[in-house]
Write a structure and sequence with these properties.
505 residues, mainly alpha, two-stranded antiparallel sheet, 2 strands, 1% strand, disordered N terminus
C-alpha cells in the first residue's frame, strides 16, 4: 500500500524506522504496512503471541517524539505490577454498573407491583442502557482518545455512583420517574465502561496476556449481571405490604450505593493513564510516536468498506442482542411456567452468566495460544444456537433442574462469545482503533437488543414463551450462517511480525 500523505515522509524514511526498531532486531515490518495519521496500531491480536501493536496511539505526521530519547525508551520493556490492580478495579466498577442494569428485570413482577406500572415499563429500565449507548458512542470514543484512560475511568465510575444514589430518592410508589432518572444516569456511565477492556489490555499488558486481560475485564461485567440475577430476589421478597417492600428495596439501593462510592474512591487512587515502562516492544514503539486526535469519520468509512467486519457487526449484534433479550425477559418466562419461583429465576440467570464467564475466560486463553479467530467464533456460534434450541423446548417441561442445566449450557456459549467477538473484530480491522471496532459491535448489540426485547416480549405476552424463544432461534440461525461466510482474517492484517516464519497472508 502506498502512502500518499507528504507529511509522513519522516516516518516512512527507512533510517527512522530502523532507528525506532533497533532495540528488537528480530521484528520486521511487513511490506504492505502503511502508516496513516488516523490509523492506530493494536497489540492484542497478533499472528504470534509476542507480535503486537498498540491500537490507541496513532502514527502521526510529526514523526517520532523526542528522537534523542526514543531508543532509550524502546529498550526498556517492563510489566507493571499495577496492571492487575488497574484491571481488577475496572472489572469491579463495571460489575457494579452491570448489576444496576439487570436489578429491575430480575424481579420484574415485584417492581411492577411496587410502582404500579406495566411489565413493558420495567423492561425499559433495562433497554435504556441499550438506547443510551447508541448516540453516545462517538462522543465518548472521542473523549477517550482526547483525555485518556484515567479521565474516562473517573467519569464512568462517578456517573455510576451518582445514579446509584439517585435511586434512593425513588422509594415511594409514585416516584417511578426518579428511579428512571437514576437508571438513565447509570446507562450513561455504561458508555464510559464498555469500550475500555481492550484499551486497558493493550496499554497495560504484555503481548502474551492481552486476550486474557481483555477477558478478565469483560469478566467483571458478566459477574455484575450474575449478581444482579442472584441478589435482588433474595433482598427484595415478593410481599404485598408497600412499606415493607420499600424497606427491602432501600436495603438493596443502599448497598449498591455504598459499593459504587467505594469503587469510585479506588479508581481515584489506583487508576493511572499508562505504566511507566511499555509492557511490550510494540508498545515501546508507540510510546516513541506522537499522538493526536483520531479521524473517526474516516475510520468508520474504512471499517464499513470491510465486508468481513460488516458481517461480524451483524452476527455479533444478533448474538448479543439475543442475550440481552433473554436476560431482560428471563424472570417473566420462568414465572410463567414456575409461579412463585422468583429466587430460582434469579439463580437460573446466575447459572447462565457464570457458565458464560467460564466460557469467556476459556476463549480468551484459547485465542492467546491459537489465534484461530474465525474457527473458534463459528464453533461457539453454532453451539449457542444448539443451546438456545434445547433451552426453548425444555423450559416448559416442569423440571427446574432441567432448566438450570440447559440454561447453563446456553450461557457457556452465548455469553462466552461476547469477548471473542471483540477480539475477532480487532483482528479483522487491524490497524484501525480497537475502540472504534468494539464500539460499533456494541451499537449493533444495543440495536438488536432493543428490537429483540420488545418483539420477544410482545410474542410472549400474546403466544407464550416457546414462540418467543423460537423467534430468537431463527435469528441465531441467521447469525451462524453469516459467521460461516466470514473470510480469512489474515488478508486484513497490517502488523509487525516476529521474523519471516510467522508471517501470515
Amino acid at each position: 500500500m502506498v502512502n500518499e500523505n507528504p507529511n509522513l515522509e519522516e516516518l516512512n524514511d527507512p533510517p527512522v524506522l530502523e532507528k525506532a526498531l533497533q532495540a528488537e532486531p528480530s521484528v520486521s515490518v511487513h511490506p504492505i504496512v502503511s502508516i496513516h495519521p488516523s490509523v492506530s496500531i493494536h497489540p492484542s491480536t497478533s499472528a504470534h503471541p509476542s507480535s503486537s501493536v498498540h491500537p490507541s496511539t496513532s502514527a502521526q505526521p510529526g514523526g517520532l517524539n523526542h528522537p534523542s530519547s526514543s531508543c532509550q525508551e524502546l529498550s526498556v520493556i517492563k510489566l507493571s505490577k499495577r496492571r492487575w490492580a488497574v484491571v481488577l478495579v475496572f472489572s469491579c466498577y463495571s460489575m457494579c454498573n452491570a448489576f444496576q442494569w439487570i436489578q429491575y428485570s430480575s424481579i420484574n413482577n415485584i417492581f411492577m407491583h411496587f410502582y404500579g406500572v406495566s411489565a413493558f415499563a420495567i423492561d425499559w429500565l433495562s433497554m435504556c442502557y441499550m438506547l443510551t449507548y447508541i448516540p453516545l458512542l462517538l462522543p465518548v470514543a472521542w473523549l477517550l482518545e482526547k483525555f485518556g484512560l484515567r479521565t474516562i475511568a473517573l467519569t464512568g465510575s462517578a456517573l455510576n455512583c451518582l445514579g446509584a444514589w439517585v435511586k434512593l430518592g425513588s422509594l415511594k410508589p409514585h416516584l417511578f420517574p426518579v428511579t428512571v432518572l437514576g437508571q438513565v444516569i447509570c446507562s450513561v456511565a455504561q458508555v464510559f465502561i464498555l469500550g475500555m477492556p481492550s484499551r486497558i489490555a493493550s496499554v497495560w499488558f504484555g503481548a502474551n496476556e492481552v486476550s486474557t486481560a481483555c477477558s478478565v475485564a469483560v469478566f467483571g461485567n458478566q459477574l455484575g449481571i450474575a449478581i444482579g440475577f442472584l441478589v435482588p430476589p433474595i433482598l427484595v421478597p415478593n410481599i404485598k405490604d408497600q412499606d415493607q417492600l420499600a424497606y427491602h428495596i432501600s436495603i438493596m439501593f443502599y448497598i449498591i450505593g455504598g459499593v459504587a462510592t467505594l469503587l469510585f474512591i479506588l479508581v481515584i487512587i489506583v487508576f493511572k493513564e499508562k505504566p511507566k515502562h511499555p509492557p511490550s516492544r510494540a508498545q515501546s514503539l508507540s510510546y516513541a510516536l506522537a499522538s493526536s486526535d483520531a479521524s473517526y469519520f474516516s475510520s468508520i468509512v474504512r471499517l464499513f468498506k470491510n465486508l468481513n467486519f460488516v458481517l461480524l457487526v451483524i452476527t455479533y449484534g444478533l448474538n448479543a442482542g439475543a442475550f440481552y433479550a433473554l436476560s431482560t425477559l428471563l424472570n417473566r418466562m420462568v414465572i410463567l411456567h414456575y409461579p412463585g419461583e422468583e429466587v430460582n429465576a434469579g439463580r437460573i440467570g446466575l447459572t447462565i452468566v457464570i457458565a458464560g464467564m467460564l466460557g469467556a475466560v476459556i476463549s480468551g486463553i484459547w485465542l492467546d495460544k491459537s489465534k484461530t479467530y474465525k474457527e473458534t467464533t463459528l464453533v461457539v456460534y453454532i453451539m449457542t444456537l444448539v443451546g438456545m434450541v434445547v433451552y426453548t423446548f425444555t423450559l416448559s417441561l416442569g423440571h427446574l433442574w432441567v432448566v438450570f442445566l440447559t440454561a447453563g449450557t446456553l450461557g457457556f456459549f452465548m455469553t462466552g462469545y461476547l469477548p471473542l467477538g471483540f477480539e475477532f473484530a480487532v483482528e479483522l480491522t487491524y490497524p484501525e482503533s480497537e475502540g472504534m471496532s468494539s464500539g460499533l459491535l456494541n451499537v449493533s448489540a444495543q440495536v438488536f437488543g432493543i428490537i429483540f426485547t420488545i418483539s420477544q416480549g410482545q410474542i410472549i405476552d400474546s403466544y407464550g414463551t416457546m414462540p418467543g424463544n423460537i423467534f430468537l432461534c431463527v435469528f441465531l440461525s441467521l447469525g451462524a450462517a453469516l459467521t460461516g461466510e466470514l473470510g480469512s482474517e489474515g488478508k486484513m492484517r497490517f502488523r509487525l511480525f516476529w521474523g519471516p516464519g510467522h508471517q501470515q497472508f
